[in-house]
TrEMBL record:
GO terms for molecular function: serine-type endopeptidase activity; toxin activity. Transmembrane segments: none annotated. The lineage of its organism: Eukaryota, Metazoa, Ecdysozoa, Arthropoda, Hexapoda. PROSITE patterns: TRYPSIN_DOM, TRYPSIN_HIS, TRYPSIN_SER. Fibrinolytic activity; shows preferential cleavage of Arg-Gly bonds in all three fibrinogen chains. Contact with the caterpillars causes severe bleeding, due the anticoagulant effect of the protein. Belongs to the peptidase S1 family. CLIP subfamily. It comes from Bombyx mori. This is Alkaliphilic serine protease. It comes from the Eukaryota. One of its GO terms (cellular component) is extracellular region.
Amino acid sequence: MNSIIILLALGLAAVAAVPTNPQRIIGGSTTTIDRYPGIVSLLFTRNWSQWWQACGGNLLNQRSVLSAAHCTFGDQTGAWRLRVGSTWANSGGVVHQLNRIIHHPNYNRQTADSDLCILRSNTNIVLNNNVRPVNIAGSNYNLADNQPVWAAGWGATSLGGSNSEQFRHVQVWTINQNACVQRYRPINRAITANMLCSGVLDVGGRDQCQGDSGGPLLHNRVLVGVCSWGQYCADRRFPGVNVRVSRFTSWIQSNS
């Protein structure tokens, strides 16, 4: 499996086989799953006896979860499981096994473009106050610059820091596409129309990080982004980069 893509050297996309520093929300605070009932903890195993939280996901319906392709690409389906309805990364809620993982056909490991996958559960996911499908942005969803958005997950609270067992969230802001392009151009990283940048530009201190991959970026409770990659975490120069959900609405609906 591949953790959230964090670029630690100029121009190089760090794609680790297994996350040595599973990522967590930076600059936020703890919260509870009832406030984000659409988020899912994705569990991964190396040894087929223990599964641990490695990425986030977003519940689409009683069988399907949307996440980042780089999390699961190249892995056996059985190496992943879903934990729903828990504030805690590695306990509580209900765990479901998978029968299929669908990667977006245009996913590019080098550029991280179209970084989406859909995980299909073996069994129906029971809905309740802590388990509820997300609302996804439509293809014409209007998302302006400098809008407050919320990221959530169990990722690192600092770059290379320890795991957050308790669910966390943080408010960041959408960043102008051209501004994001300019920030990443010096290190030869392309920001495509399929990407959505977020953070606190020139300030930093708030962001998603490794282990938050696949988790949500929410605008007025609508899923507008899926956590994908970035240069470091919460860096004032480089925004976090998400998949822009509105560019993939049709594919998501067709495959969920």
